[in-house]
Backbone:
């Protein structure tokens, strides 16, 4: 911090983005003139403290096999204690190369072919792959919007859980794409129902550190003793610190028997060893990235508010839902569907991309019957957010 600068004054720059077009960025593999705001990674530079630590790591100039040191455990334990009031013991966490590999490995380890896994749609599309690609069936427990927030249908959830063929539930906490932060009571109720019907919960908490400044997420394992005993929590610095390419994540399983099953599966699948940079990225993020993250959350919250106000003023026929977590906005663009269908497009996202060059995620990926919805990623400088809104506005005229 510069001398004379107050604690509340911004220290980091989010209005300028690195040019990612020739960096093998999956997000920016687009045609000239297109604006990609789809896949969930950020266009901001990584915190300079993390960059410095990664450069220092490279200076050892011998990039061989890497073990998980005590520093990694201490970083996770300290972060979840001070940020999320969760007590974590060293033996309860373990390294894994990513949240999706952990989920897929857990599905393989804890189910038999044709058993059911409950998903609450709309939900992150890769969950479907984790289930179906491992020989199981998806049982959909659809969320509903009550006019104020997205809610769980607990009556339908119990019906799905009581099916004798249901063995797993994959929970998105916080919720992607809706941006909902589940309350402690909601999570405890999920845990109670799952325990009653002997269903294990996999809680994907990868977006947990990205939320509005006045909000905070509740770890599933902290909601009740039951939740702690029946759950696998999936954590990573990748979303909050823009480190997805580092392949660095963690599993948290307090139940020793369940943990032994999962760790054995991860070793069988060969996804339990870090690459050369993975540990450094996580340790640096959790030990040195806290202020950067706080400023990021304020910036992203500002982008969300801008989008919501712009659409309310200029495109009131679109419905953008309140999003308290993630850097994503879930938008009901059904009013554009008749035009898209008339023009021969399968969904409204394809129609928007074709007509404006704005590349959003298609709602149908997140569950059946959602082709009129789109997901917008606002983790990008404000100038891009403004451009996205103006491109959308051209379709409303």
Residues:
């Amino acid at each position: 911090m510069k001398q004379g600068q107050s604690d509340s004054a911004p220290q980091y720059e989010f209005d300028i983005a690195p040019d990612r077009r020739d960096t093998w960025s999956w997000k920016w593999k687009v045609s000239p003139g297109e604006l990609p705001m789809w896949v969930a990674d950020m266009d901001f530079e990584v915190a300079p403290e993390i960059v410095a630590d990664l450069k220092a790591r490279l200076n050892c100039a011998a990039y061989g096999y890497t073990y998980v040191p005590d520093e990694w455990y201490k970083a996770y334990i300290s972060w979840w204690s001070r940020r999320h009031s969760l007590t974590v013991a060293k033996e309860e966490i373990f390294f894994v190369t990513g949240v999706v590999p952990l989920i897929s490995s857990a599905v393989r380890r804890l189910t038999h072919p044709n058993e059911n896994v409950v998903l609450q749609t709309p939900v992150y599309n890769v969950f479907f792959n984790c289930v179906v690609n491992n020989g199981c069936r998806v049982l959909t427990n659809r969320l509903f919007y009550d006019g104020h927030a997205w809610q769980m249908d607990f009556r339908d959830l119990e019906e799905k859980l009581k099916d004798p063929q249901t063995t797993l539930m994959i929970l998105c906490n916080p919720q992607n794409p809706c941006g909902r932060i589940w309350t402690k009571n909601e999570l405890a109720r999920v845990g109670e129902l799952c325990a009653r019907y002997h269903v294990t919960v996999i809680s994907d908490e990868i977006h947990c550190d990205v939320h509005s400044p006045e909000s905070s997420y509740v770890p599933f394992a902290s909601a009740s003793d039951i939740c702690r005993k029946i759950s696998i929590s999936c954590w990573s610095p990748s979303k909050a610190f823009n480190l997805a390419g580092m392949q660095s994540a963690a599993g948290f399983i307090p139940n020793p028997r369940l943990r032994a099953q999962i760790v054995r599966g991860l070793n069988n699948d060969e996804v339990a060893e870090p690459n050369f940079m993975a540990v450094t990225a996580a340790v640096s993020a959790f030990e040195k990235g806290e202020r950067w993250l706080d400023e990021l959350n304020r910036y992203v919250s500002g982008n969300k508010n801008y989008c919501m106000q712009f659409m309310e003023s200029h495109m009131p026929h679109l419905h953008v839902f309140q999003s308290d977590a993630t850097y994503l906005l879930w938008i009901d663009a059904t009013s554009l569907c008749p035009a898209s269908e008339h023009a021969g497009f399968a969904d409204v996202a394809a129609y928007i991309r074709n007509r404006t060059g704005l590349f959003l995620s298609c709602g149908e990926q997140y569950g059946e019957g959602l082709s009129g919805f789109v997901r917008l990623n606002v983790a990008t400088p404000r100038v891009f957010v403004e451009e996205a809104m103006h491109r959308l506005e051209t379709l409303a005229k």
